[in-house]
Please model this.
Amino acid sequence: MTGTPSRSTDSANGSAARRSDASRSAILAAARERFATDGYERATIRAIAKDAHIDPSMVMRYFGNKDGLFAAAVALDLRMPDLSRSPRTEVGRALVAHFLNIWEENEELTAVLRVAVTNKAGAERLQGIFREQVVPVAQQVCPDPEQVPARAALCASQLMGLALTRYVLRLPPAAELAREEILAWLGPTLQRYLTAPSP
Model:
């Protein structure tokens, strides 16, 4: 005869769920600290597990690998500028300048890009950052609301292309460009993507 689950079974299931949540939280807290201290490359699953007082196999169970853990652990606030406060003719340059500051001050963003090109979880994390933080900024200045996602994506293609060649691949011509040269080259391009009439 089949009956309803006993209260002891429910209690055991609830306790297991709480332990699982506590384990995930401990791993994520340790990972954030370790990634911030050691950077992506030097942080290891073993070190993170030790910090969290968790067996390394549990880290793999919850997050799959270091890429998946990084994507889950790192929450990036790009501190996007309010382009509506910039002169309309300068919004492209202002956005390039902001991203140059971000890339050069925050190694986590470079690490997210490195992970995103090879890992689904990392790619999804970067897509979320684009959707939640970049698109609303483009919305402030784009002349056609229906074109905001496409225009924001074009801006992202330029900015992430620069980041990939300058900070990840360290392609010498890109890495050696002076800040003012980058602003002079990319500023007008982003300006056109953001504010020019549709072709």
User: Anything to note?
Assistant: Residues 7-73 form a domain with the Arc Repressor Mutant, subunit A fold (CATH 1.10.10.60). The CA atoms of residues 84 and 140 lie 6 Å apart. The radius of gyration is 22 Å. The mean pLDDT is 87.
